[in-house]
Amino acid sequence: MSLKRIITExxxxxxxxxxxxxxxxxxxxxxxxxHSSLSLIxxxxxxxxxxxxDVTIGVQRPERVAAERVKAALPHGEVAVRxxxxxxxxxxxxxxxxxxxxxxxVTVRLDLP
Length: 113
Prior knowledge:
CATH superfamily: Tubulin/FtsZ, C-terminal domain
Number of helices: 3
Strand content: 35-45%
Distance between the termini: 4 Å
Radius of gyration: 15 Å
CATH architecture: 2-Layer Sandwich
Shape: elongated
CATH class: Alpha Beta
Structural class: alpha+beta
Order of helices and strands: EHHEHEEE
Number of strands: 5
Helix content: 10-25%
């Protein structure tokens, strides 16, 4: 058997006032997974704990994302989080923190024949 990609979902999240890259990343993951249902996995009779879940987060300042907090937002599977440069920072013209926008790609793989 080999790992087969069965789900790929995309999401966006933001922190409008706090400049919190982790909060934006978690919201992006939540947006992605709320577009998906695990009915396929249940119908295959597969234990959801066996899913391989790969998360890629894009933000302008990857070093400011706490990957473990992003990982904790995923309720099932063996989760790996990778943070890369991407997303968008929107400056606050009044001098505040500005808005942080994160992108997320969540891919689920199962060991199938």
